[in-house]
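Design job #97: recover the sequence.
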């Protein structure tokens, strides 16, 4: 598997875990939309939209050199209004990013729940 495909798997797995835990803590199965996009210049994003709240967790990233990525995680509305930026910011190879995201999962969940509760 290429590093680019692997980074999408890492980001998707993180977003899935946060979404599932948010559903548990809200005592309801939240609806979601999720996916990823690739843009010119090695840029990409991966997201999950929580419905009916219309709140998104969105990773924006870029491959800055061969197999080295810079990734940030924001919370925004579906209209693009940023509610909380740079919740997580990390750079490195996939395994380094995965380790950092695992350690920051509770932080991301806590920040997301603030906007789901309002």
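Job complete. Output follows.
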């Amino acid at each position: 598997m290429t590093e680019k495909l692997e980074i999408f798997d890492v980001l998707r797995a993180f977003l899935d875990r946060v979404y599932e835990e948010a559903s548990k803590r809200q005592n309801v199965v939240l609806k979601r939309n999720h996916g990823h996009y690739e843009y010119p210049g090695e840029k990409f994003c991966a997201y999950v939209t929580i419905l009916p709240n219309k709140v998104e967790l969105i990773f924006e990233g870029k491959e800055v050199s061969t197999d080295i990525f810079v990734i940030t995680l924001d919370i925004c509305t579906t209209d693009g209004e940023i509610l909380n930026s740079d919740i997580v910011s990390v750079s490195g190879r996939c395994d380094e990013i995965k380790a950092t995201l695992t350690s920051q999962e509770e932080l991301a969940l806590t920040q997301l729940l603030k906007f789901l509760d309002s």
